Structures are given as structure tokens and as C-alpha cells.
Amino acid sequence: MFIRLISFLVLAGFYVGVGTGQPLVPALIIIGDSVVDAGNNNHRTTLIKANFPPYGRDFFAHNSTGRFSNGKLVIDFTAESLGFTSYPVAYLSQDANGTNLLTGANFASGASGFDDGTSLLYNAITLNQQLKNYKEYKIKVTNMVGRDRANEIFSGAIYLLSTGSSDFLQSYYINPILNRIFTPDRYSDRLMNFYSTFVHNLYNLGARRIGVTTLPPLGCLPAAITMFGGAGNNTCVERLNRDAVSFNTKLNNTSMYLANKLPGLKLVVLDIYNPLLSMVMNPVANGFFESRRACCGTGTMETSFLCNARSVGTCSNATNYVFWDGFHPSEAANRVLAASLLVQGISLIS
Ligand SMILES: *[C@@H]1O[C@H](CO)[C@@H](O)[C@H](O)[C@H]1NC(C)=O
Ligand SMILES: *[C@@H]1O[C@H](CO)[C@@H](O)[C@H](O)[C@H]1NC(C)=O
Ligand SMILES: *[C@@H]1O[C@H](CO)[C@@H](O)[C@H](O)[C@H]1NC(C)=O
Ligand SMILES: *[C@@H]1O[C@H](CO)[C@@H](O)[C@H](O)[C@H]1NC(C)=O
Ligand SMILES: *[C@@H]1O[C@H](CO)[C@@H](O)[C@H](O)[C@H]1NC(C)=O
Ligand SMILES: *[C@@H]1O[C@H](CO)[C@@H](O)[C@H](O)[C@H]1NC(C)=O
């Protein structure tokens, strides 16, 4: 009954728990790429960073924390909805110490992928290294609260994995060798192997509630239209969207298989493809007026260091833009995505 009431409140869009103490789960652990990175790339030698204006201009204190958006990420809204009063700290930031770690941590790194080879191209933190950092995190938490309490935290926590776009957009599509060796379908199979191994490893480390996001409509990202669309063609690149749909079907299949195989595991696929496509195709119905051009710079390409304080053309208010930069949704779009994910992920909470 209690759980049902909570579910109802969450579904109804209340921020249950905010300010009232107990979050719905003990901790939130984030693993993945720039869509969920909250600053782990800030001190790395990589071009893929977002710790300078105009990134974060609508975040608290206009702080460029390393989030690849103008404001909050999907996971920030998720953390609020689950009743946390702070966001999981970027594990490689100064803030990641002491009791801050007890409600979770964020291990994600911009430009990482399912395939460690993708991450290495950009000196991002590979998925396997993120897992190693998580192991180190577990030791720190265990030392703080003791084994029993720590294990409750690890098994009760929600683990969110969000990655894969970089494997396609920043590796497969632009690498002639990969392109020759693998069809998009075989490349997806290859990524599924990495995914499956990753879930096994995370499960063996104690995770029991895992959410994994699908690929977005890759062909609708402004930079993808610029890079892979026909000359003068302003519409989503169908070929890329087909690849994403096919990948997502495999992700669904593989996840069902893993959930059946691993006792006690809740593994939920969180669809971001359809909610984002809906915003792109019907912006006005979703409260937006611009879904082709991103806010930052010319809105056709700029991301990371190319989206900076000197970029010419940056919009003054991103509220009605689906995309903040060439690859990443605006805070406004992230809010819509988070609402959808919360409903889809409800079984992870109960
Ligand atoms: C900006 O964010 C960083 C990293 O999250 C944090 O350490 C710092 O205190 C924040 N600064 C302000 C002014 O809020
Ligand atoms: C975390 O480290 C910062 C400086 O790096 C320090 O100011 C802060 O007190 C530390 N917090 C905890 C909880 O240890
Ligand atoms: C633009 O893209 C659409 C969908 O991918 C395609 O049907 C159309 O032929 C393209 N037009 C041009 C001029 O390339
Ligand atoms: C997904 O699983 C179904 C049923 O097990 C199977 O028929 C289908 O071929 C699978 N699709 C992919 C893309 O693996
Ligand atoms: C995932 O697969 C299951 C069973 O094969 C199916 O019922 C469900 O609709 C699929 N979900 C998606 C998003 O494809
Ligand atoms: C952006 O526009 C929205 C409504 O269109 C408004 O509520 C908001 O205050 C504006 N933000 C800024 C920073 O001007």
C-alpha cells in the first residue's frame, strides 16, 4: 500500500521526499557518457569537456560544473524525484569525499562508450575504468559505514547506465576501418557483448536495480544532421535513426535475457528514443519552438570546446530549444525526458 502510494505520487509528478529526509532508494550510481557526466572530464587531458560558459549558465549559480547542458541533466531531475537533496557527486571531483559519497556517485565520462576503444580515442574514462572506480568507491563507503550497511546501500541503489551514442557518432560512422569490418547490425552485436559483460560485472559487484537508457534518435541530433545529412537537407538522417532503432531492439532483447538469467536483478530499459523523437517532430506540442537548431553557436555543430563564450549566435534563452548544443538536449528537454524515464523506471523503486 505504502509503495503504491509512493508510486502514485511519483507518477503524478510530485517531488516526493524533497526536503523531507528519506529518499526512495539509498543511493544513485551513474555510469556512462556525456549525457550523464557531471564533471569527471574536467581535470583530464581531453577535448571533451563542458566546464566553461556558456555550459551551465542556467544551473545553480550559473556554474559550469562539466555538465553538457545549459542547466540540469536528466539524472539531476531523477535525483530530485527520488527525494535526494543533492546530486550524486562526480567521483573525480573534490566534492567526492566523506559522507557525500553515501548517497551515490557519478562515474560517467563524456565521449566514453560501450566499447572501451571509443573512449580511448578521446581519452575519456572507459566503462571498465568506471567500474574500477566504482569498486574503489565501494571500499570507501564500506570503510565509512561497515559491511552490512554498505551492502544494503549497494543492493538498494539504483544504477543508471547511459552510453552508446559516441560508439556510433564519434567512432563507427567516422572510422573507415570499423565501417568496413562491421555492418551497423554487427557493430551493434559487438556492443551488446560489451553491454552484457558490463551487466554481469556490475551484478557481481552487488547491483540489483539497473536502468539502461536506449540510444536517442541519433539522426536527429543537430550535429549528426550536419555531418551525415544530405547537403542542404534539414531533416533527421533516416539511416542513423534506423541503426538506433535496431540497436535498441537488441538492447531490449539482451536485457530481458540478462534479467531472466541473473537472480534478483531488476534490469529496466529506459526508452529515450521515442520521447526525444516526439519533441523533435512535434516541438510546439511539447512546449518548444526550435528542434533543429541547437542554442549554442550556429546550432548546427558546436559541442564541447567549440561551444564557448565566444561562439557567435548562441541563443539568449534555451527554454524553447530541444537541443542545447550539437549533441546534447537542453535543460528543458531533459526535464521532459526525466518525467518519461521516471514512469518507465517505476519498477526499480518498488
Ligand atoms: C560549482 O560546481 C563545483 C562542482 O560541482 C563545486 O565544487 C563548486 O562549489 C560550485 N561553485 C558554486 C559557486 O556553486
Ligand atoms: C572534502 O574535501 C574538501 C576539499 O577538498 C573539504 O573542504 C571538505 O571539507 C571535504 N569534505 C568532507 C566531508 O570530508
Ligand atoms: C532529405 O532526407 C530525406 C530523409 O532522409 C530524404 O527522403 C530526401 O531525399 C533528402 N533530400 C535531399 C535533397 O537529399
Ligand atoms: C529479439 O527477441 C525475439 C524473441 O526472443 C526474437 O524473435 C528477435 O529476433 C530478437 N531480435 C533481435 C534484433 O535480436
Ligand atoms: C522488449 O521485448 C519485449 C518482449 O520481447 C516486448 O514485449 C517489448 O515491447 C519490447 N520493448 C521494446 C521497447 O521494444
Ligand atoms: C526564458 O524564457 C522563459 C519563458 O519563455 C522564461 O520563463 C525564463 O525566465 C527565461 N529565462 C531567462 C534566463 O531569460
TrEMBL record:
<feature type="signal peptide">
    <location>
        <begin position="1"/>
        <end position="21"/>
    </location>
</feature>
<dbReference type="InterPro" id="IPR008265">
    <property type="entry name" value="Lipase_GDSL_AS"/>
</dbReference>
<dbReference type="InterPro" id="IPR001087">
    <property type="entry name" value="GDSL"/>
</dbReference>
<dbReference type="InterPro" id="IPR036514">
    <property type="entry name" value="SGNH_hydro_sf"/>
</dbReference>
<dbReference type="GO" id="GO:0006629">
    <property type="term" value="P:lipid metabolic process"/>
</dbReference>
<comment type="similarity">
    <text>Belongs to the 'GDSL' lipolytic enzyme family.</text>
</comment>
<dbReference type="InterPro" id="IPR035669">
    <property type="entry name" value="SGNH_plant_lipase-like"/>
</dbReference>
<dbReference type="GO" id="GO:0016298">
    <property type="term" value="F:lipase activity"/>
</dbReference>
<protein>
    <submittedName>
        <fullName>Uncharacterized protein</fullName>
    </submittedName>
</protein>
<keyword id="KW-0732">Signal</keyword>
<dbReference type="InterPro" id="IPR050592">
    <property type="entry name" value="GDSL_lipolytic_enzyme"/>
</dbReference>
<dbReference type="Pfam" id="PF00657">
    <property type="entry name" value="Lipase_GDSL"/>
</dbReference>
